[in-house]
Write a structure and sequence with these properties.
The protein is mainly β. The chain is built from one helix and 13 strands. It has one domain (23-183).
Length: 196
């Protein structure tokens, strides 16, 4: 009986080890993410140091004001392999909120954090969309110069980033656009994985 129990544990462990064969199989809903810097009062996109001073531990997609807002898959590093673009939305229950964007590759059967950033708060460079396009990362933030109050903006700024030497660098000029009308006030539901 003991031999059977040991064999079962071995088979289950081997199954878990072989279970993740791609980034799409990672359970980002029940996952631990690093967090660095101030939690709120952001007014721009800021790339963060991978050395975390705190952690977000999602359980069923939630942890103390954080919610898993989106997981999208695309090649954003130009290596012809899919990375995961994970967005965590932080809502205080009051008026301030922000989003964290995490980029994970898949290496030796495990997710590997490449980089992450936070965005601003709503009309002040809050996250509108993030997606991969032609091997690059595209981030669209609400334009603070076109704010309609603290909550909303009638424009967004699109920045394309190219991965080089372990970092994202701006690639090409910024572009400006107009959000879809339903996106002016539907925060937390505005994140898209596809290009407009």
């Amino acid at each position: 009986m003991r031999v059977l129990a040991i064999a079962m544990v071995f088979l289950i462990s081997a199954g878990f080890a072989d279970g993740q064969k791609s980034i799409r199989q990672v359970d980002f809903k029940n996952f631990t993410y690093p967090r660095t810097g101030p939690l709120l009062a952001h007014d721009h996109l800021q790339w963060l140091d991978l050395t975390a001073n705190s952690h977000i531990r999602l359980h069923d997609g939630k942890d103390s004001g954080f919610t898993l807002a989106a997981v999208k898959y695309a090649d954003v590093t130009g290596d012809a392999k899919e990375e995961a673009i994970v967005v965590l939305h932080y809502d205080t229950g009051g008026t301030q909120q922000t989003d964290y964007i995490y980029i994970y590759s898949f290496d030796s059967g495990q997710p590997k954090l490449l980089t992450y950033c936070y965005t601003g708060d709503r009309a002040y460079s809050g996250l509108y969309k993030v997606y991969g396009l032609s091997g690059k990362l595209v981030v669209e933030l609400f334009d603070p110069d076109k704010q309609l109050g603290d909550c909303c903006s009638s424009g967004f700024i699109r920045t394309t980033y190219k991965w080089h030497n372990g970092r994202f660098f701006q690639f090409g000029p910024r572009q400006f656009g107009t959000p879809e009308p339903q996106d002016y006030s539907v925060f937390g539901q505005r994140i898209s994985g596809t290009a407009p």
